[in-house]
Amino acid sequence: MEPAMYKGSCCDIISWFEDISENASCVQMQTLRRILQLNFAVEYLKKWIGEVNFEDMEDSALESLYTSLVPLASHADFEPYVQRIADGEKAPLITQEPISTLSLSSGTTDGRQKYVPFTCHSSKTTLQLFKLAAAYRSRIYPIKEGGRILEFIYSSKQFKTKGGITVGTATTHYYASEEFKIKQRQTKSYICSPEEVISSGDYKQTTYCHLLLGLYLYDQVEFIASTFAFSIIQSFVSFEEFWEEICNDIRDGTLSSKITIPSVRKAVLDIISVPNPCLAKRVQSKCVELEEKDWLGLIPKLWPNAKYVYSIMTGSMQPYLTKLRHYAGDLPLVSADYGSTESWIGVNVDPCCPPEKVSFAVVPTFSYFEFIPLNRSENEVIGNSAIDDFVEDDPVPLSQVKIGQQYEIVLTTFTGLYRYRLGDVVEVVGFHRNTPKLNFICRRKLILTVNIDKNTENDLQLVVEKGSQILRKSRAELVDFTSHAEVGKNPGHYIIYWEIKGEVEERVLEECCREMDASFVDHGYVVSRRTNSIGPLELCIVEKGTFKKIMENFIANGAALSQFKTPRCTTNQVLLTILNFWTIKRFRSTAYGP
Ligand code: AMP
Which residues pair with 310 in a beta bridge? Predict the structure, then answer.
């Protein structure tokens, strides 16, 4: 079947991407030239490249000059500039055009929210990426023109710095932008909820309204989406609790007293105020059936016209896949694209690829990308700085990356970041024409380390997956997890916090704990455990709802639910206090002896 969706523009954007992928290396050099043409006179660049005139320089000469003069940098190097922008300084510090908006990165991967410059280029590339991804999806999963998306999206509060700069998460700026509306018009797919719902600032009220409106418009819903998969899970977990109230609202054309924000009440009631007892009865009977089956296949049952579920499901979202599959039944899960507050990076050109295997084709016009080759340190003991487990080579341009090699991504953006280390580790798994396809591996920062041991988020995820397989055999489910390296005591040890659903015998949890301890394969960890310079792994089971409290803590501090990622390791005292307060059982591993 031919996709009904915006056929002409679909082909246009795909052929545009095929073209720039074919010439990815040239396009990258042009991208760098364009960034430098726009911003060569800014304070940050002048410090490194002075008054060099690169106008007549060949592309490759410009590329080598740029990478030899401008050093690799981290967020800390840009912080003083970004602070001056936040304070209201209008001089060209990192971009020629003054920056009037700053984005707040989620801070849930790094533990600390960061200010990142946001310009009209950011919204434009977001629009371009979403259109491109939609075009690739519609080739495989055609959707109806004019249909709806049940999209669980949330804006955070925007505020002004003392210098008058608007601050909010990147997703918040995007939802408030014209590009968000243009995307809906051009892809001919419209979200179910009005703007007032997305920007209510109260995630519980927003979730309720998204679900209510999604059900009200159920027969028009073509797919279910969110930025990160976590929001879909948290929405349906809430739905299990309050579905009856939603049915009442549909039946009577009323709105629950849960919804207290006047503008949200008005906007939602404008849509649903005609009572619809027939629909309420339909939803009610399906929910009764679903409840008996522990909500297996909830999505296709309630939204029979939905073609797929679309969201970021890789990286720290991978642990939610089991639950997402449970809700999605046999609907395909389409893994959404790869980017960061700093820049979009890659698009999923194979929408039918399962999330565990998905890769992202780099879009060479979005930023100028470099790749730092990362190799595992051969000498485990020499590399005992415990900062990192990788030996770095010199950064290479996109044209020189190799299949099978892992890299850290470096960005030079249109928004004023120059040779900025993103901190993500990716692996090149192939090419789309001549642009690399990347697998997201993990954040580079080690998360668990006591002495010579080195474990990344990915290592922890693999270990937790092994432990939770045992849990699943006893028909229980891991809701969420995090960890902490307890170094205050001697010997130090790892603590893994689990929230579980279902009843589990203590001996099963003891086995999970032992299995996880034995599954850390890092040589430093194994040696340290054998010599007891790292103590037995501790598994703490927390009370139901603890991870919701953690999420609420982040949101209360300005994070947006749309960008929320449960931190997989924490040293944050507030979080540790919550986790320890709600711990109801503790187990110590016997994997390396009693
Ligand atoms: P933020 O700082 O909130 O903008 O989050 C950006 C980070 O989220 C990236 O640097 C990645 O670590 C992670 N991320 C974004 N997209 C993906 C994806 N498709 N798969 C895995 N991780 C992702």
Answer: 225, 334
The helix (run of H) or strand (run of E) holding residue 406 is strand 406-412
What is the number of the ligand 1 atom nearest to the C-alpha of 336?
19
List pLDDT tens digits, range 203-225. 999 999 999 999 999 999 999 99
As a whole number of angstroms, the distance between CA 20 and CA 346 comes to: 13
Instruction: Please give the distance, rounded to the nearest whole angstrom, from the Cα atom of residue 330 to the centre of ligand 1.
Output: 27
Rounded to an integer, what is the distance from CA 535 to the centroid of its chain? 33
DSSP assignment letter at 315: G
Ligand 1 within 6 A of 340 CB? yes
Q: Mind listing the pLDDT tens digit for each residue in 420-463?
A: 999 999 999 999 999 999 999 988 887 888 988 889 888 999 99
Phi and psi at 527, nearest 5°, equal -60, -45
Place of tokens 């002495």: 451
d(CA 172, CA 201): 11
| CB-based contact 565:440 (threshold 8 Å) | no
pTM of structure: 0.90
**Torsion angle in degrees (nearest 10) through CA of 539, 542, 544, 548:** -100
Cα 416 from Cα 439, distance rounded (Å): 26
- 106 in ligand 1 pocket by Cβ < 6 Å? yes
Q: Quote the CA–CA distance of 530 and 162 in Å, as a whole number.
A: 55
The distance from CA 388 to its chain's CA centroid, rounded to whole angstroms, is 23
β-bridge pairing 538-542 and 396-397: unpaired
SS (H, E, C) 491-515: CEEEEEEEEEECCCCHHHHHHHHHH
Q: Does the Cβ of 338 fall within 6 Å of ligand 1?
A: yes
Helix (H, G, I), strand (E, B) or coil at 73: strand
C-alpha atoms less than 13 angstroms from C-alpha of 422 in its C-beta half-sphere: 27
Matching residue, tokens 């948290």: 234
Cβ contacts of 61 within 8 Å, gap of 6 or more:
none
